[in-house]
Amino acid sequence: MAAVLPPSGGLPGGEDPFAEGRRRLGVAADLDTVELTEIGEDTMELNMGPQHPSTHGVLRLVLDLDGEVVRACRPDIGFLHTGFEKDFERHSYQQCIPYSDRMDYLAPLINNLGFSLAAERLLGIEVPPRGQYLRVIMCELARIGSHLIWFGTGALDLGATTPFLYAWRERETILDINELVSGVRMHTSFIRVGGLMADVPDEFEAMVRNVVHTFPKAIDEYELLITKNPIWRQRTVGLGTISAEDALAYGMSGPSLRGSGVAYDLRKAQPYSSYDHFDFDIPVGHNGDVYDRYLCRMREMRESLRIIEQALENLPSGPVNTLDRKVAPPPRNEINTSMESLIRHFKLVTEGFHVPRGQVYQAVESPRGELGFYMVSDGSNRPYRVKVRAPSFSNLSALPYMVKGGLIADVVAVIGSIDIVLGDVDR
Amino acid sequence: MIHRAHVVEACALLRDDPDGLYTLPVFVTAVDWPDREPAAPRYDVVYQFRSLHHNDVCRLVVQVPEDDPTVPTLEGEFCGMDWHERECYDLLGIVFEGHHDLRRILLPDDWEGHPLRKDYVSFGEPVAFTHNIEWALPAAERPPGMPGSSR
User: Fold this and answer.
1) Rounded mean pLDDT, A143-151
2) What domains, with CATH codes, occur in chain A?
3) What is d(CA B107, CA B114) in angstroms, rounded to the nearest whole number?
4) Taking CB atoms and an 8 Å cutoff, what residues of chain B touch A427?
5) By the 8 A CB rule, do A388 and A129 touch?
6) Domains delineated in chain B
7) Beta-strand pair B70-72/A369-377
8) Distance from CA of A17 to the nearest CA of B (A)
9) Which residue of B has its CA nearest to A80?
């Protein structure tokens, strides 16, 4: 029996710098006198993040650990707070659109849509059918792109490297479509108040058809890798469970709520932008655990493909922007010939349009849940107040409940399963 | 629009009544109206709930005055209101009485002012260079009258 460590911790004559750590871990300096800490007597506070790869951004968690078991979890957010709601108050309605892109940066088009629909409801205008269908196609592509990131990074967090590379490969084709229609790959600002930035080019249809044809096979491939994988099931089944009642009380929405068995999808319940024209199902889970939320999102990607296919088949012809010249700028050729159009264009670019007084709450189904815009107008050309109801914010507030009593290694799995975007949480 | 004394019972009624079942707390926020006619209270505290059963949303507005911007907390009725109330306190300075942990949530703990109030100056803050180095001082030691400080 040999004493491995010198009692002073190796520092001649000085204080033992490791004494506190040893006491917490139950390791004595002299191994002959090891005393184990009784379970529950002492918890260790562990800081996780904000620079942690598994927190999907800048999320900081303070965990109270009892050995490997999480006794309490205190999220600390706000590292990505940018004050977008204040920015909205200082910009005209069209100028707000690029800000909305940058909140939920994995599905920017759906943020554009929520903001535009809220403003359009206050203005009392409706977008022509072609514009609505193109909005649906672009938003569902954005939803698939967002779910692909969730799938890739969520699997990577749990040690599966391959799905990450596959998901990125498929997402690239969606970004190519974004680039084709708007010139930008991610923060497209393609959906504007009153319609779209422009009509889509001729290649659009072939590229979207390519997605509709190739993606089911790609999703089959992902499912082959992961869905029945015993390691994946061990790491996800029965973990981070939340009942439907608790999920509702926490204000959860989207696939995180549907994983608990609540079939509520705003695209079905309160259809906007012609979603009621399409036939699709709402995937729901039963157990409300990480695995069910995973299954919901995987099936949701297939449903999104169904919507895209139907929208593309029945894509109407006609204008994409509202014909209300007080909102949508006149076409280029008219500006060359008509003085009134030139003035109107100048007014729209410099001043923007004025929105009647009122308040409206418009919610859309983002990949993360209910994304709501509560917009108050005082009749000027800028929103008086815009409150963004971020789905990730409410979903994340349920995290301490879901990880309590679980193991520290599972915290990462649960964070991945609620699919937060910190830009959306902090705004 | 209801009085703040009745917020808790009104929300409990909305949640539990079979004709309501507004079980999902959507958000709570506030709108600042500093230029409303003098007698009117300055803040509108806005609550939004969703009923999945009846597929409906419901909005409650509580007006609170500038000198006493307090409303009772709804934490006990909906645990999801916890963070939303902290956000509303952080950005608008509405105090939710009875909240167990009413701290700032998005902004740093030592932030001054509430940015979404209309009188908060949110642009024109100088950057501290040699000629205006006092801008880098903590707010309490800064000379009075520097732009960017909140009222």
Assistant:
1) 93
2) 1-37 (no CATH), 84-426 (1.10.645.10)
3) 9
4) 106
5) no
6) 4-113 (3.30.460.80), 121-151 (no CATH)
7) unpaired
8) 31
9) B106
